Amino acid sequence: MFTPVRRNGVGALAPGRCRRAAQYKAIPLNPLRAEGGKPGGRVPSPNGAAARLQWTGSLTAKGMTANLKIASAVDGVMGALLPSHCLLCGARGQGALSLCADCAGDLPVNAVCCPRCALPLAAPAPLCGRCVRRLPPWDAAWAPFRYEWPLAQLEARFKFAADLAAGHTLAAAWMVSPQPAELPQAIVPVPLHRARLRRRGYNQALELARPLARHFGVPLLRDVLRRPRATAAQTELDAVARRRNVRGAFVLAGNASLPDHVAVLDDVFTTGATLGECVRVLKRAGVARVDVWALARAARR
Asked: CA 224, CA 142: separation in Å to the nearest integer?
């Protein structure tokens, strides 16, 4: 059993809101540092099965409210026999979301942010300071969450520890977030180089893009961008090094057919170097409007 822990302003650990928090041990936030600095360090993952549920709800800065409707009588029976459990604390989960009410309420919603780059802001503004000085290559950004505890923990487990249940929960939370005013005509996930895809076994951006594309009824163009050049991991690089690292890393597939408005999707938006490079490739190919979507926006580095 395990629990989330909250990091306060000085980096110390304090118990989360869950009523069972005192019973469990903390998990390293970054699995890359969990064991010897290598990916795949041991990160506990609960084994809970959830019935196939239809999720409807809303997400606000004050937390999450939801209605869960059983898709069929069979699903109702399965839900009773195999109830979902919270992926963060192990308490009874909320069906497809697989989080308890307290942990779902702790998801850090990116309610006040720059409309152009989704950077979290202290107060509403037309643009953040950096976008005022120099507009990014994309046209709009959507990142419904901030990259903070406990979402950062779920994302790290999904990305580095092959916890696909965490990915399912993250996608479910994303789908009930307030959506952009204008949806794209297609979603393009950021591709992985074949060597990294072979090691990881899946592309986390594609796994998030699939349910979103179905939810919005938007085509998923999974093969229009390719990543022929292997790049170093961006995790420990600063903004300048990140831009240099991904420069020229993406190319357009030879037979790609693109609409006028697409969204490039990635899991986490940190400096925008990876997303920006993808946007430039698509705009050079003639796409009129390219938005960037990410599950979570990190504070500026």
From this structure: 21
The helix or strand, by DSSP H or E, that contains position 60, with its residue range, turns out to be strand 53-60
DSSP state of 162: -
Span 17-26, pLDDT tens digits: 454 443 333 3
Closest alpha carbon to 296 in 122, 155, 86 = 155
In contact, 231 and 242? CB cutoff 8 Å: no
Contact in structure between 190 and 278 (CB atoms under 8 Å): yes
Q: Are 86 and 98 in contact (CB under 8 A)?
A: yes
How do the domains of the chain map onto residue ranges?
5-105, 129-297
Q: Are 99 and 169 in contact (CB under 8 A)?
A: yes
Q: How many helices (H) and strands (E) does the chain have?
A: 9, 11
Of 255, 239, 236, 249, nearest in space to 277 by CA: 249
Q: Is 46 exposed, middle or buried (0-12, 13-18, 19+ CB in 10 A)?
A: middle
Which residues share a beta bridge with 189? 265
Architecture of domain 129-297: 3-Layer(aba) Sandwich (3.40)
Q: What is the mean pLDDT of the chain?
A: 75
Query: How would you classify residue 132: left for phi > 0, otherwise alpha for psi between -120 and 50, otherwise beta?
Result: alpha
Instruction: Please give the model's pTM, rounded to 2 decimal places.
Output: 0.73
